[in-house]
Design brief:
Oligomer: single chain
Order of helices and strands: HHEHEHEHEHHHHHHHHHHH
Largest sheet: 4 strands, mixed
Number of strands: 4
Strand content: 5-15%
Distance between the termini: 19 Å
Amino acid sequence: MFKLWATIVKDVRILLRDVVGISLMFVMPIILVVVVTSIQNSTFNLVNKNKLSILICNSDTGQSSQQLIKSISKIGMFKVSLLPTDKSAQQMADAMHDNDAMLGVIIPSDFSRKVEAKSKSIAGKALTSFGLAGDSTKKVGDVDPLTLYYNPILQESLRLSVQGGIRSALQLVESRETLRSLYFSINEKQLPEKLENEMLNNNTAINEIPVSKDGTRATPNATQHNVPAWTIFAMFFVIMSLGGSVVREKVSGSFIRLKTLPTNYLVGIFSKQITYLAVTMLQAAVIFSMGIWLFPFLGLPALNLPSDILALIIVTVVCGWCAVSYSICVGVFADTQEQANGFGAVSIVILAAIGGLMVPSFAMEGFAKTAANFSPMHWALQAYYSLFLEGGKLKDVVNNIIPLFIITVALQLITFWGLKRKNLI
Protein backbone atom coordinates (compact mmCIF):
# COMPACT_ATOMS: atom_id res chain seq x y z
CA MET A 1 0.00 0.00 0.00
CA PHE A 2 2.90 2.33 0.80
CA LYS A 3 4.39 1.67 -2.65
CA LEU A 4 1.11 2.61 -4.32
CA TRP A 5 0.77 5.77 -2.21
CA ALA A 6 4.35 6.83 -2.96
CA THR A 7 3.74 6.28 -6.69
CA ILE A 8 0.53 8.32 -6.56
CA VAL A 9 2.41 11.20 -4.88
CA LYS A 10 5.03 11.00 -7.63
CA ASP A 11 2.38 11.08 -10.38
CA VAL A 12 0.62 14.04 -8.76
CA ARG A 13 3.88 16.00 -8.63
CA ILE A 14 4.59 15.21 -12.30
CA LEU A 15 1.05 16.26 -13.22
CA LEU A 16 1.33 19.58 -11.39
CA ARG A 17 4.50 20.39 -13.36
CA ASP A 18 2.66 19.80 -16.66
CA VAL A 19 1.14 23.27 -17.10
CA VAL A 20 0.27 22.68 -20.77
CA GLY A 21 -1.45 19.39 -19.95
CA ILE A 22 -3.49 20.97 -17.15
CA SER A 23 -4.54 23.77 -19.50
CA LEU A 24 -5.69 21.26 -22.12
CA MET A 25 -7.60 19.26 -19.53
CA PHE A 26 -9.36 22.17 -17.84
CA VAL A 27 -9.09 25.52 -19.65
CA MET A 28 -9.84 24.23 -23.17
CA PRO A 29 -12.98 22.25 -22.21
CA ILE A 30 -14.27 25.19 -20.15
CA ILE A 31 -13.88 27.54 -23.13
CA LEU A 32 -15.46 24.96 -25.44
CA VAL A 33 -18.51 24.36 -23.27
CA VAL A 34 -19.15 28.10 -22.82
CA VAL A 35 -18.68 28.97 -26.50
CA VAL A 36 -20.60 26.02 -27.95
CA THR A 37 -23.46 26.38 -25.47
CA SER A 38 -23.73 30.10 -26.23
CA ILE A 39 -23.86 29.45 -29.98
CA GLN A 40 -26.39 26.64 -29.69
CA ASN A 41 -28.51 28.62 -27.25
CA SER A 42 -28.65 31.44 -29.81
CA THR A 43 -29.72 28.90 -32.43
CA PHE A 44 -32.44 27.56 -30.12
CA ASN A 45 -33.68 31.12 -29.57
CA LEU A 46 -33.71 31.76 -33.32
CA VAL A 47 -35.86 28.70 -33.93
CA ASN A 48 -38.04 28.84 -30.81
CA LYS A 49 -38.34 32.51 -29.77
CA ASN A 50 -36.96 34.95 -32.32
CA LYS A 51 -38.81 35.55 -35.58
CA LEU A 52 -37.40 35.23 -39.07
CA SER A 53 -37.47 38.49 -40.97
CA ILE A 54 -39.44 38.22 -44.22
CA LEU A 55 -39.96 40.85 -46.93
CA ILE A 56 -43.23 40.71 -48.89
CA CYS A 57 -43.64 42.45 -52.21
CA ASN A 58 -47.39 42.53 -52.94
CA SER A 59 -48.07 43.30 -56.60
CA ASP A 60 -51.76 42.48 -56.15
CA THR A 61 -54.50 44.91 -55.08
CA GLY A 62 -57.25 42.44 -54.12
CA GLN A 63 -58.45 41.13 -50.78
CA SER A 64 -56.89 37.66 -51.06
CA SER A 65 -53.35 39.02 -51.01
CA GLN A 66 -54.13 41.12 -47.95
CA GLN A 67 -55.56 38.07 -46.20
CA LEU A 68 -52.45 36.10 -47.14
CA ILE A 69 -50.19 38.72 -45.56
CA LYS A 70 -52.30 38.69 -42.38
CA SER A 71 -52.20 34.89 -42.28
CA ILE A 72 -48.40 34.87 -42.63
CA SER A 73 -48.12 37.40 -39.80
CA LYS A 74 -50.33 35.25 -37.54
CA ILE A 75 -48.13 32.16 -37.97
CA GLY A 76 -45.81 33.52 -35.27
CA MET A 77 -42.46 32.63 -36.81
CA PHE A 78 -42.11 35.65 -39.14
CA LYS A 79 -41.39 39.34 -38.74
CA VAL A 80 -43.19 40.75 -41.79
CA SER A 81 -42.04 43.88 -43.65
CA LEU A 82 -43.79 45.16 -46.79
CA LEU A 83 -41.95 46.41 -49.86
CA PRO A 84 -43.10 48.61 -52.73
CA THR A 85 -44.70 46.72 -55.61
CA ASP A 86 -43.10 45.49 -58.83
CA LYS A 87 -39.81 44.22 -57.49
CA SER A 88 -37.64 42.12 -59.78
CA ALA A 89 -35.64 39.13 -58.57
CA GLN A 90 -32.44 41.17 -58.35
CA GLN A 91 -34.21 44.01 -56.56
CA MET A 92 -35.66 41.53 -54.05
CA ALA A 93 -32.21 40.07 -53.45
CA ASP A 94 -30.78 43.56 -52.90
CA ALA A 95 -33.64 44.45 -50.55
CA MET A 96 -33.07 41.28 -48.52
CA HIS A 97 -29.39 42.12 -48.22
CA ASP A 98 -30.05 45.75 -47.26
CA ASN A 99 -32.66 44.79 -44.65
CA ASP A 100 -30.74 41.75 -43.36
CA ALA A 101 -33.79 39.60 -44.11
CA MET A 102 -33.73 35.81 -44.31
CA LEU A 103 -36.76 35.48 -46.62
CA GLY A 104 -38.57 37.29 -49.38
CA VAL A 105 -41.96 36.66 -51.05
CA ILE A 106 -43.39 38.14 -54.26
CA ILE A 107 -47.18 37.93 -54.65
CA PRO A 108 -48.18 38.08 -58.37
CA SER A 109 -50.38 40.93 -59.63
CA ASP A 110 -53.41 38.74 -60.50
CA PHE A 111 -53.29 36.64 -57.34
CA SER A 112 -56.71 37.68 -55.92
CA ARG A 113 -58.49 37.43 -59.26
CA LYS A 114 -57.24 33.90 -59.94
CA VAL A 115 -57.90 32.74 -56.38
CA GLU A 116 -61.47 34.02 -56.65
CA ALA A 117 -62.02 32.40 -60.06
CA LYS A 118 -60.59 29.08 -58.90
CA SER A 119 -62.74 29.19 -55.76
CA LYS A 120 -65.92 29.78 -57.79
CA SER A 121 -65.02 26.88 -60.08
CA ILE A 122 -64.50 24.53 -57.11
CA ALA A 123 -67.75 25.74 -55.50
CA GLY A 124 -69.60 25.07 -58.78
CA LYS A 125 -68.25 21.52 -58.93
CA ALA A 126 -69.26 20.96 -55.32
CA LEU A 127 -72.83 22.17 -55.99
CA THR A 128 -73.09 19.90 -59.03
CA SER A 129 -71.96 16.91 -56.96
CA PHE A 130 -74.67 17.82 -54.40
CA GLY A 131 -77.33 17.76 -57.17
CA LEU A 132 -77.75 21.55 -57.13
CA ALA A 133 -77.38 24.01 -59.95
CA GLY A 134 -73.77 24.98 -60.35
CA ASP A 135 -71.38 25.94 -63.13
CA SER A 136 -68.89 23.07 -63.30
CA THR A 137 -68.00 23.40 -66.99
CA LYS A 138 -65.98 26.59 -66.80
CA LYS A 139 -62.28 25.81 -66.74
CA VAL A 140 -59.99 28.07 -64.79
CA GLY A 141 -56.23 28.19 -64.92
CA ASP A 142 -54.10 27.56 -61.85
CA VAL A 143 -53.12 30.40 -59.58
CA ASP A 144 -49.64 31.69 -60.38
CA PRO A 145 -47.14 30.39 -57.81
CA LEU A 146 -45.70 32.60 -55.13
CA THR A 147 -41.99 33.26 -55.42
CA LEU A 148 -40.05 32.56 -52.21
CA TYR A 149 -36.51 33.85 -51.87
CA TYR A 150 -34.35 32.62 -49.00
CA ASN A 151 -30.89 33.22 -47.64
CA PRO A 152 -28.64 30.21 -48.45
CA ILE A 153 -27.44 30.02 -44.83
CA LEU A 154 -30.87 28.73 -43.74
CA GLN A 155 -30.69 25.02 -42.97
CA GLU A 156 -32.93 22.74 -45.01
CA SER A 157 -35.04 21.72 -42.00
CA LEU A 158 -35.75 25.38 -41.15
CA ARG A 159 -36.42 26.21 -44.79
CA LEU A 160 -38.96 23.36 -45.03
CA SER A 161 -40.65 24.68 -41.88
CA VAL A 162 -40.89 28.11 -43.51
CA GLN A 163 -42.29 26.62 -46.69
CA GLY A 164 -44.86 24.63 -44.69
CA GLY A 165 -45.95 27.74 -42.78
CA ILE A 166 -46.44 29.80 -45.93
CA ARG A 167 -48.23 26.91 -47.62
CA SER A 168 -50.63 26.71 -44.65
CA ALA A 169 -51.32 30.45 -44.88
CA LEU A 170 -51.98 30.13 -48.62
CA GLN A 171 -54.27 27.17 -48.08
CA LEU A 172 -56.23 29.12 -45.47
CA VAL A 173 -56.79 31.99 -47.93
CA GLU A 174 -57.97 29.63 -50.69
CA SER A 175 -60.24 27.70 -48.31
CA ARG A 176 -61.78 30.94 -47.03
CA GLU A 177 -62.52 32.13 -50.57
CA THR A 178 -63.98 28.75 -51.60
CA LEU A 179 -66.18 28.68 -48.50
CA ARG A 180 -67.50 32.18 -49.24
CA SER A 181 -68.29 31.28 -52.86
CA LEU A 182 -70.07 28.09 -51.85
CA TYR A 183 -72.15 29.85 -49.18
CA PHE A 184 -73.10 32.69 -51.53
CA SER A 185 -74.14 30.25 -54.26
CA ILE A 186 -76.50 28.45 -51.88
CA ASN A 187 -77.86 31.34 -49.80
CA GLU A 188 -77.31 34.28 -52.18
CA LYS A 189 -75.86 36.34 -49.35
CA GLN A 190 -72.46 36.88 -47.81
CA LEU A 191 -71.08 34.38 -45.32
CA PRO A 192 -71.36 35.82 -41.76
CA GLU A 193 -67.94 36.59 -40.32
CA LYS A 194 -68.62 34.73 -37.05
CA LEU A 195 -69.67 31.55 -38.87
CA GLU A 196 -66.69 31.89 -41.21
CA ASN A 197 -64.26 32.07 -38.30
CA GLU A 198 -65.90 29.12 -36.54
CA MET A 199 -65.64 26.97 -39.66
CA LEU A 200 -62.06 27.92 -40.51
CA ASN A 201 -60.62 28.00 -37.00
CA ASN A 202 -62.14 24.74 -35.82
CA ASN A 203 -58.71 23.17 -35.27
CA THR A 204 -57.81 20.42 -32.83
CA ALA A 205 -55.18 21.58 -30.33
CA ILE A 206 -51.81 19.82 -30.03
CA ASN A 207 -50.16 19.43 -26.63
CA GLU A 208 -46.36 19.05 -26.76
CA ILE A 209 -44.78 17.14 -23.86
CA PRO A 210 -41.07 16.16 -23.74
CA VAL A 211 -40.75 12.46 -22.92
CA SER A 212 -39.09 11.76 -19.55
CA LYS A 213 -38.76 8.72 -17.35
CA ASP A 214 -39.43 10.54 -14.07
CA GLY A 215 -42.70 12.16 -15.14
CA THR A 216 -41.33 15.73 -15.21
CA ARG A 217 -42.13 18.09 -18.07
CA ALA A 218 -39.08 20.35 -18.03
CA THR A 219 -38.10 21.37 -21.56
CA PRO A 220 -34.44 20.49 -22.36
CA ASN A 221 -32.17 23.40 -23.25
CA ALA A 222 -28.77 23.97 -24.84
CA THR A 223 -27.00 23.62 -21.48
CA GLN A 224 -28.51 20.20 -20.78
CA HIS A 225 -27.26 19.05 -24.20
CA ASN A 226 -23.77 20.54 -24.22
CA VAL A 227 -22.43 20.32 -20.67
CA PRO A 228 -22.53 16.48 -20.50
CA ALA A 229 -21.16 16.17 -24.05
CA TRP A 230 -18.14 18.41 -23.53
CA THR A 231 -17.50 16.94 -20.08
CA ILE A 232 -16.93 13.60 -21.81
CA PHE A 233 -14.66 15.31 -24.34
CA ALA A 234 -12.65 16.88 -21.51
CA MET A 235 -12.26 13.52 -19.75
CA PHE A 236 -10.83 11.84 -22.84
CA PHE A 237 -8.47 14.75 -23.45
CA VAL A 238 -6.42 13.65 -20.42
CA ILE A 239 -4.61 11.65 -23.08
CA MET A 240 -2.57 14.78 -23.85
CA SER A 241 -1.02 14.60 -20.37
CA LEU A 242 -1.33 10.95 -19.37
CA GLY A 243 -0.27 9.44 -22.70
CA GLY A 244 2.76 11.71 -22.85
CA SER A 245 3.65 10.84 -19.23
CA VAL A 246 3.73 7.10 -20.01
CA VAL A 247 5.91 7.70 -23.08
CA ARG A 248 8.31 9.97 -21.16
CA GLU A 249 8.84 7.27 -18.54
CA LYS A 250 9.66 4.75 -21.26
CA VAL A 251 12.04 7.10 -23.12
CA SER A 252 13.79 8.42 -20.01
CA GLY A 253 14.60 4.95 -18.70
CA SER A 254 12.29 5.10 -15.70
CA PHE A 255 11.02 1.62 -16.52
CA ILE A 256 14.51 0.20 -16.26
CA ARG A 257 15.09 1.89 -12.91
CA LEU A 258 11.75 0.59 -11.63
CA LYS A 259 12.81 -2.95 -12.47
CA THR A 260 15.73 -2.60 -10.06
CA LEU A 261 13.31 -1.79 -7.22
CA PRO A 262 11.32 -4.36 -5.21
CA THR A 263 8.06 -3.47 -6.95
CA ASN A 264 6.14 -4.09 -10.16
CA TYR A 265 5.38 -1.61 -12.92
CA LEU A 266 1.72 -2.57 -12.60
CA VAL A 267 1.78 -0.57 -9.37
CA GLY A 268 2.80 2.46 -11.44
CA ILE A 269 -0.03 1.77 -13.90
CA PHE A 270 -2.58 1.53 -11.07
CA SER A 271 -1.19 4.76 -9.62
CA LYS A 272 -1.68 6.61 -12.89
CA GLN A 273 -5.22 5.28 -13.18
CA ILE A 274 -6.14 6.44 -9.68
CA THR A 275 -4.49 9.84 -10.11
CA TYR A 276 -6.02 10.65 -13.48
CA LEU A 277 -9.39 9.16 -12.53
CA ALA A 278 -9.44 11.79 -9.79
CA VAL A 279 -8.56 14.38 -12.44
CA THR A 280 -11.54 13.34 -14.61
CA MET A 281 -13.85 13.54 -11.60
CA LEU A 282 -12.51 17.03 -10.88
CA GLN A 283 -13.11 18.01 -14.53
CA ALA A 284 -16.72 16.86 -14.30
CA ALA A 285 -17.21 18.71 -11.01
CA VAL A 286 -15.76 21.94 -12.44
CA ILE A 287 -17.80 21.86 -15.67
CA PHE A 288 -21.03 20.86 -13.93
CA SER A 289 -20.49 23.62 -11.34
CA MET A 290 -20.03 26.14 -14.16
CA GLY A 291 -23.31 25.00 -15.70
CA ILE A 292 -25.13 25.39 -12.39
CA TRP A 293 -23.73 28.69 -11.07
CA LEU A 294 -21.80 30.52 -13.82
CA PHE A 295 -24.06 30.05 -16.85
CA PRO A 296 -26.97 32.12 -15.43
CA PHE A 297 -24.59 35.09 -15.05
CA LEU A 298 -23.63 34.68 -18.73
CA GLY A 299 -27.26 34.76 -19.83
CA LEU A 300 -27.34 31.01 -20.51
CA PRO A 301 -29.82 28.45 -19.10
CA ALA A 302 -28.67 26.89 -15.83
CA LEU A 303 -27.75 23.20 -15.70
CA ASN A 304 -30.30 21.08 -13.83
CA LEU A 305 -28.69 18.04 -12.25
CA PRO A 306 -30.60 14.74 -12.53
CA SER A 307 -32.53 13.51 -9.53
CA ASP A 308 -30.46 10.31 -9.25
CA ILE A 309 -27.06 11.70 -8.16
CA LEU A 310 -25.70 8.19 -7.47
CA ALA A 311 -26.31 7.22 -11.10
CA LEU A 312 -24.58 10.42 -12.21
CA ILE A 313 -21.50 9.59 -10.09
CA ILE A 314 -21.36 6.00 -11.37
CA VAL A 315 -21.61 7.07 -15.01
CA THR A 316 -18.91 9.71 -14.46
CA VAL A 317 -16.57 7.21 -12.76
CA VAL A 318 -16.98 4.58 -15.49
CA CYS A 319 -16.53 7.22 -18.22
CA GLY A 320 -13.44 8.64 -16.51
CA TRP A 321 -11.96 5.17 -16.04
CA CYS A 322 -12.52 4.44 -19.74
CA ALA A 323 -10.81 7.71 -20.71
CA VAL A 324 -7.83 6.92 -18.45
CA SER A 325 -7.59 3.35 -19.80
CA TYR A 326 -7.58 4.60 -23.38
CA SER A 327 -4.88 7.19 -22.59
CA ILE A 328 -2.60 4.62 -20.96
CA CYS A 329 -3.16 2.18 -23.82
CA VAL A 330 -2.07 4.79 -26.37
CA GLY A 331 0.92 5.74 -24.21
CA VAL A 332 2.09 2.12 -23.94
CA PHE A 333 2.07 1.55 -27.71
CA ALA A 334 3.43 4.99 -28.74
CA ASP A 335 7.20 5.23 -29.16
CA THR A 336 7.48 9.00 -28.86
CA GLN A 337 5.57 11.76 -27.10
CA GLU A 338 4.74 13.30 -30.49
CA GLN A 339 3.11 10.05 -31.57
CA ALA A 340 1.06 9.85 -28.39
CA ASN A 341 -0.11 13.47 -28.59
CA GLY A 342 -0.77 13.46 -32.34
CA PHE A 343 -2.61 10.14 -32.46
CA GLY A 344 -4.37 10.90 -29.19
CA ALA A 345 -5.76 14.28 -30.29
CA VAL A 346 -6.90 13.04 -33.71
CA SER A 347 -8.44 9.83 -32.35
CA ILE A 348 -10.35 11.72 -29.64
CA VAL A 349 -11.86 14.06 -32.23
CA ILE A 350 -12.83 11.07 -34.41
CA LEU A 351 -14.37 9.22 -31.46
CA ALA A 352 -16.26 12.38 -30.52
CA ALA A 353 -17.55 12.79 -34.08
CA ILE A 354 -18.82 9.23 -34.47
CA GLY A 355 -19.93 9.13 -30.84
CA GLY A 356 -22.55 11.85 -31.29
CA LEU A 357 -20.82 14.77 -29.56
CA MET A 358 -20.60 16.80 -32.77
CA VAL A 359 -23.40 15.28 -34.88
CA PRO A 360 -26.43 13.70 -33.13
CA SER A 361 -26.45 9.91 -33.38
CA PHE A 362 -30.07 9.86 -34.60
CA ALA A 363 -28.99 11.85 -37.67
CA MET A 364 -26.39 9.24 -38.66
CA GLU A 365 -27.00 6.49 -41.17
CA GLY A 366 -25.23 3.43 -42.50
CA PHE A 367 -21.58 2.94 -41.51
CA ALA A 368 -21.49 6.00 -39.22
CA LYS A 369 -24.42 4.70 -37.15
CA THR A 370 -22.75 1.29 -36.80
CA ALA A 371 -19.38 2.83 -35.95
CA ALA A 372 -20.98 4.85 -33.13
CA ASN A 373 -21.44 1.61 -31.16
CA PHE A 374 -17.64 1.21 -31.00
CA SER A 375 -17.06 4.69 -29.59
CA PRO A 376 -17.01 4.80 -25.78
CA MET A 377 -18.13 8.42 -26.00
CA HIS A 378 -21.38 7.28 -27.60
CA TRP A 379 -22.34 5.08 -24.65
CA ALA A 380 -21.24 7.70 -22.11
CA LEU A 381 -23.24 10.40 -23.91
CA GLN A 382 -26.35 8.23 -24.09
CA ALA A 383 -26.09 7.55 -20.36
CA TYR A 384 -25.74 11.27 -19.57
CA TYR A 385 -28.62 12.16 -21.89
CA SER A 386 -30.82 9.56 -20.22
CA LEU A 387 -30.08 11.18 -16.84
CA PHE A 388 -30.12 14.87 -17.81
CA LEU A 389 -32.75 14.98 -20.56
CA GLU A 390 -35.06 12.06 -19.80
CA GLY A 391 -34.92 12.09 -16.00
CA GLY A 392 -33.69 8.48 -15.94
CA LYS A 393 -32.52 6.47 -12.95
CA LEU A 394 -29.63 4.06 -12.49
CA LYS A 395 -31.65 1.15 -13.90
CA ASP A 396 -32.27 3.18 -17.06
CA VAL A 397 -28.56 3.69 -17.82
CA VAL A 398 -27.32 0.17 -17.06
CA ASN A 399 -27.61 -0.74 -20.75
CA ASN A 400 -25.23 2.14 -21.52
CA ILE A 401 -22.83 1.52 -18.63
CA ILE A 402 -22.28 -2.17 -19.50
CA PRO A 403 -20.90 -1.54 -23.06
CA LEU A 404 -18.76 1.30 -21.68
CA PHE A 405 -17.42 -1.03 -18.98
CA ILE A 406 -16.72 -3.76 -21.56
CA ILE A 407 -14.74 -1.31 -23.72
CA THR A 408 -12.78 -0.25 -20.62
CA VAL A 409 -11.91 -3.85 -19.70
CA ALA A 410 -10.88 -4.51 -23.32
CA LEU A 411 -8.54 -1.49 -23.21
CA GLN A 412 -7.07 -2.75 -19.92
CA LEU A 413 -6.38 -6.17 -21.44
CA ILE A 414 -4.82 -4.64 -24.55
CA THR A 415 -2.62 -2.47 -22.32
CA PHE A 416 -1.54 -5.50 -20.28
CA TRP A 417 -0.70 -7.38 -23.49
CA GLY A 418 1.31 -4.39 -24.74
CA LEU A 419 3.27 -4.18 -21.48
CA LYS A 420 4.07 -7.92 -21.72
CA ARG A 421 5.05 -7.62 -25.38
CA LYS A 422 7.45 -4.74 -24.63
CA ASN A 423 8.86 -6.58 -21.58
CA LEU A 424 7.79 -3.78 -19.28
CA ILE A 425 6.27 -6.13 -16.72
